[in-house]
Amino acid sequence: IGPMGAGKTAVGRVLAGILHYEFYDSDHEVEKQLGADISWIFDLEGESGFRKREAAVIDEFTQKDNIVLATGGGCVITKENRDVLIKRGFVVYLSISLEEQFERVKRSKHRPLLLNDDPLAVLTQLSETREPLYNNTADLVYDTTSQKVPIIAQAIIDSLNEG
After folding, report:
1. For the chain, domain boundaries
2. What share of the chain is helix, strand, coil (3-state, %, to 5)?
3. Which of 9, 21, 93, 158 is most deeply buried (CB count within 10 A of its CB)?
4. Which GO terms describe its molecular function (predicted)?
5. What is the pLDDT of residues 76-99, one digit of tens each?
6. pLDDT digit string (tens) for 115-157?
7. What is the 3-state secondary structure (H, E, C) of 76-132?
8. Architecture of the domain defined by 8-145
């Protein structure tokens, strides 16, 4: 779990490879099921419609064994998602500084929440709202700021081995 741009998908893929697990991305799975991208889903159904679809995907995939699931940044706003993640998995919160997050995502056209005049203000507001939820859901918090994906993945593996 973690905010957009923290590296959830990139780290998740590497982590799954190291562990010899299947990798899934909840946003990608929602898109795959509908045959449409998230921006289109937001336009058609709004954020609440997307969140319902996301919750169904998270519920489905957290019932599988030996997987790594990268979730969308907003999945934690739904209590059911937090409960399912806590109950069924080892949850890693990939945190990131607001400044680096903005640099990573500012040019993206595929992030519907940022398609406005002040994306930095949106990121700030999202961080204030979601950070406590990420922290309360996570078994492990790892700051990805200025970190390379393989280093992050190995640090997570090391933490799993220690626990």
Report:
1. 8-145
2. 65, 10, 30
3. 93
4. ATP binding; shikimate kinase activity
5. 999 999 999 999 999 999 999 999
6. 777 889 999 999 999 999 999 999 999 999 999 999 999 999 9
7. HHCHHHHHHHHHHCCCEEEECCHHHHHHHHCCCCCCHHHCCCCHHHHHHHHHHHHHH
8. 3-Layer(aba) Sandwich (3.40)
